[in-house]
Design a protein that fits this description.
- The chain is mainly alpha-helical and about 600 residues long.
- It has a domain of about 90 residues.
- About 60% of the residues lie in helices and about 0% in strands.
- It is built from 31 helices and no strands.
């Protein structure tokens, strides 16, 4: 037993074994009575290990943990700031409601401690206390208010984290400290900067007006702040509200941070708060982070993709940074392809298409399919480059890879359906070349696309269409369901336009479809038979409108394009596309500049 060991050295060795077993996931709660008795030991190393153990098992052994309360309360008053902080951290980690008042008193005393390290620990304890007993919110808000006024950079990040968890909408606590936050921001620890930047992004949206709109001026007079503003912003006479400008200028030095999360947070702040002409300032630093390890790279690329949906121009100078490397994982390749699609314009489309053409020579079928789809998306996004994209797709039809040809056929078919597509002789050439590929292409989706093109443009391929239908009739029984549907559609159209040549073939197809295992195909064939071939008088009305039913304009397909996320850019919710715990959406812009007078530097 630990209490029977006489020397501190032996006790330390025993505790190390206990902590090691605990870190491996083993249950060592049965040792709780022995360990808790060591909490009063004067050796600081023993205290640390005992505190670690208590934090882990105090909730399980609530009654036994009460033995340590008095000693922890005593240690909170210790002359050593490290002992005070450790005791407060341990006490606040107890999930025991019987000692809430003791915990609350310790936190209240901790926020007034002379040591910034203890005050920082108190800020961390506030969130734990709030999760244990939300009824203490009012008292905790008072503690947060005091911590937000703290001048120590060590305390500020943790204080804002407590603010975000307990009272994220109490912006009245931020007003008098706003300029101090902007001034002290570079001195805050890295993760504290991330928390502070996230909070300031939301704060800016609620207090300032949209810089893209005409901005009303605040009612209060800010002449007495001119010297302060000029010193911090370096640009007097700005169009933006002065505090808005202070915030935007204060975060720029942090773009040199070594922490990718800080850089991403600045990019998010600029996306939501900066005027459009200034958003390019964060692009270079954000692109630099793309070279990070793949987990960080993915998160940053998701942010870049979201920003590029509305501000693609800021990334145009860094186009080559988004070219795909052969060693990258599939999820990184896919998102880079999305970014390149968003960055495409008339001036760089040829370069992007050359890069895409190179990617189509890869072996990974899924990746190649995504690249070919990206070519189609470029054509949809920028109608002026549709011709060049179509030429690129037509060149892919000559590929030796059946997967490449099949995907190119599908994308070409989608482009032919678009309201703005290739016209004239090139359009005719595309259609005719697709019909010539019919024997070569075996992919069901691609074959169905070719059959659709033949049926949609019968006037242009009238010489080939009956022969194609005859060939399709022979292989109908062995075809995929999606192909059978298009065979029925083509047969119906030829029956309407050329019944003498195609009528018997169509009847043969309907007879086979009548006994198909797929009930959709059986129902469809029954419908077509009644409308097109039934001699009964009551079906003649339907037959008269057969052309309107089967030969009519089709709605353009929806080609999915990268779109703006419904979640905050840079958030975990955006990455997983699902609301997360404590998720706070960025609010809409304020209609007027709010609380400008309260943000003035208070007189001292």
């Amino acid at each position: 037993m630990l209490q029977d060991i006489n020397t501190d050295k032996q006790k330390m060795e025993g505790l190390k074994l206990v902590i090691a077993a605990m870190s491996k996931g083993e249950n060592v709660s049965e040792l709780f009575p022995d360990v808790v008795k060591l909490v009063g030991n004067s050796n600081s190393e023993i205290k640390k290990m005992v505190y670690i153990y208590l934090i882990q098992y105090a909730e399980v052994e609530q009654n036994a943990s009460l033995l340590a309360i008095n000693i922890l309360k005593k240690n909170i008053s210790n002359s050593n700031q490290l002992i005070r902080a450790q005791a407060l951290r341990t006490l606040s980690s107890f999930r025991v409601k019987m000692i809430i008042q003791v915990m609350m008193a310790s936190i209240t005393g901790g926020v007034k401690d002379s040591s910034p390290y203890v005050r920082k620990t108190s800020a961390h304890a506030i969130g734990k206390m709030f999760s244990l007993d939300p009824g203490q919110k009012d008292a905790l808000v008072e503690c947060i208010d005091r911590l937000l006024k703290d001048r120590s950079p060590m305390v500020l990040g943790s204080a804002v984290a407590a603010f975000e968890e307990v009272c994220p909408d109490r912006y009245d606590l931020i007003h008098p400290n706003f300029r101090k936050f902007c001034e002290i921001l570079p001195d805050v620890d890295e993760w504290g900067q991330v928390t502070l930047l996230t909070m300031l992004t939301r704060y800016g949206r609620t207090q300032f007006v949209d810089p893209e709109k005409e901005k009303p001026k605040p009612a209060d007079d800010k002449k007495d702040d001119d010297d302060y503003l000029a010193a911090l912003s370096g640009a007097p006479g700005e169009e933006l509200d002065s505090d808005h400008r202070i915030l935007l200028n204060a975060v720029l030095p942090l773009l040199r941070s070594r922490n990718p999360a800080v850089i991403q947070s600045i990019a998010v702040l600029y996306y939501y708060l900066a005027p459009t002409p200034e958003k390019h300032k964060v692009a270079r630093a954000l692109v630099r982070v793309v070279r990070s390890p793949r987990e960080i790279q993915y998160a940053v690329l998701v942010t870049i993709r979201a920003i590029a949906t509305t501000n693609a121009d800021i990334f145009h100078p860094y186009l080559t940074d988004f070219f795909v490397d052969i060693s990258e994982p599939n999820f990184t390749r896919k998102i880079k392809i999305d970014v390149l699609t968003l960055l495409a314009n008339e001036s760089n489309i040829d370069r992007i298409l050359r890069e895409f053409n190179y990617y189509t020579s890869r072996e990974e079928k899924e990746f190649v399919a995504e690249v070919i789809q990206a070519i189609g998306k470029c054509a949809v996004r920028i109608p002026e480059v549709t011709d060049r994209c179509m030429i690129q797709l037509m060149q892919l039809l000559g590929s030796k890879s059946e997967a490449v040809v099949a995907e190119a056929v599908v994308v070409i078919k989608q482009l032919l359906q678009m309201p703005v597509n290739v016209e004239g002789s090139q359009n005719d050439d595309v259609i005719k070349q697709l019909t010539r590929l019919f024997d070569k292409v075996k992919n069901p989706k691609a074959r169905s696309s070719i059959i659709w093109v033949v049926g949609e443009y019968l006037d242009k391929v009238s010489a080939y269409a009956p022969d194609i239908l005859r060939q399709l009739a022979k292989e109908f029984a062995d075809s995929d369901d999606v192909v059978k549907h298009q065979i029925l559609n083509l047969g119906a159209k030829l029956m309407i336009k050329n019944p003498e040549q195609s009528g018997l073939i169509f009847q043969y197809i309907l007879n086979m479809a009548r006994y198909d295992v797929n009930y959709d195909i059986r129902d469809k064939s029954r419908l077509m038979r009644h409308i097109l071939l039934n001699p009964q008088e009551k079906f003649k009305v339907l037959n008269a409108h057969a052309r309107n039913l089967f030969v009519t304009a089709k709605p353009a397909p929806l080609i999915p394009l990268p779109t703006h996320s419904r979640f905050n850019i840079g958030s975990l919710a955006q990455i997983i596309n699902q609301t997360t715990a404590n998720y706070l959406p960025v609010p809409e812009w304020s209609e007027v500049v709010m609380n400008a007078e309260e943000r003035k530097v208070p007189e001292t």
